[in-house]
Design a protein that fits this description.
14 helices; mainly alpha; 0% strand
Length: 364
């Protein structure tokens, strides 16, 4: 099995974009938004969302699975971005990708709670704010200022594991072992009540990332029985873990909607099928240039949509009704995402990346 890092890799700027994958990322964010606005419990509506949106919420209650779609895409994209890079190059790229929009999101949501919408009654202390800026607040037992940040902790742990793989020379054989052992050891850690290992290995989501990595190997290396078997192994585990932890667990708890195990399984299979379709078939070359921009908006949109959207719902619903409120929530979230992408990410990301890269180069 050949070493992955020895394969010539095109410069990032010249790598072809998976335009439909960018569109899928935006669709995942929209699914999560619909889940938060029309299905998940929140006190900005004048009734329980599942009662206010009786028919719609039966579908949007599954919108949390947008996170699962994010994680599968992340497994694909992160292995793509890791190939042929040093640890310094990988870390510089990931930090520059994650943190500028995240810092903007933390500041904006804190301003919302402290200055604009005290009716949320979410007090943010100075220490909570400062620790949240690091993105590692979970490790210190500090509350996420915005609930959606929980996924970033899981992403960050995944990035750390990939950086460790790069540091010991990333090879295809090591990716195979990683994609097999990570979900397995994570599940064993959870079954044995090992809180420390469970918190590090994210057993509920490991098969999603691992499956995405195998989709990348199928895309870049072609078909092989081993790749397909490992992919199917992770798809089966992902369906089980998603149903156990989310469909029959937290999602049902937070919506009050009776979710179906079978529907959850079908949707997880559909998620893998969609990502496979836009990366392993001729669809990988299809799409329009605007989809790149749609993909660029996805991360800031995800970061700010929850409480800023609920704030708009609380304002608009009493005077214009539920659908106008949902529309206003979408509008303010997209507007903030556009502002963050244009005036935070574009100017800061390249500078941060270059600065970090120079720092890493100076230590090598």
């Amino acid at each position: 099995m050949g070493g992955m890092s020895s394969v010539p890799v095109a410069p990032v700027a010249s790598r072809p974009r998976f335009l439909l994958l960018d569109l899928l990322r935006l669709c995942a964010a929209v699914a999560v938004m619909l889940y938060h606005y029309t299905a998940r419990f929140n006190d900005q509506w004048d009734a329980v969302p599942s009662e206010k949106f009786q028919f719609v919420s039966q579908f949007t209650a599954y919108g949390f699975l947008g996170v699962q779609l994010f994680f599968v895409i992340s497994g694909f994209v992160i292995l793509l971005s890791a190939e042929g890079r040093t640890v310094g190059q990988f870390v510089s790229a990931r930090v520059a990708r994650l943190f500028p929009a995240y810092w903007a999101g933390v500041i904006l949501t804190t301003l919302l709670f402290v200055v604009i919408a005290p009716q949320f009654e979410r007090k943010v202390s100075a220490t909570e704010f400062l620790v949240n800026l690091t993105m590692v607040q979970k490790a210190f037992g500090v509350r996420h200022i915005d609930g959606v940040y929980w996924t970033l902790w899981i992403e960050l742990l995944f990035y750390i594991m990939i950086a460790l793989l790069i540091s010991v020379r990333l090879t295809e054989a090591k990716v195979y072992w990683f994609a097999f052992l990570w979900p397995l050891i994570g599940a064993l850690a959870h079954a044995s009540d090992s809180a420390f290992l469970s918190s590090l290995l994210s057993p509920a989501y490991a098969p999603l990332f691992a499956g995405g990595m195998l989709l990348y190997l199928l895309h870049s290396r072609g078909n092989s029985l081993l790749r397909w078997m490992l992919l199917l192994f992770n798809v089966c585990l992902a369906a089980h873990q998603t149903v156990t932890f989310d469909v029959l667990g937290s999602a049902q708890k937070y919506t009050g909607v009776q979710l179906s195990e079978n529907v959850g399984v079908v949707l997880v299979l559909g998620i893998f099928g969609l990502v496979a379709a836009v990366t392993l078939t001729p669809l990988q070359h299809r799409g329009w240039s605007w989809m790149t921009y749609a993909g660029a908006l996805t991360y800031p949109l995800y970061l700010v949509h929850e409480y800023w959207g609920w704030w708009m719902i609380g304002i608009v619903n009493p005077v214009a009704g539920k659908w106008a409120a949902v529309g206003a929530a979408f509008a303010v979230s997209f507007l903030l995402a556009i502002v963050i992408e244009r005036w935070v990410e574009r100017p800061i990301r390249p500078r941060l990346r270059r600065g970090l890269q120079r720092s890493f180069d100076a230590t090598s």
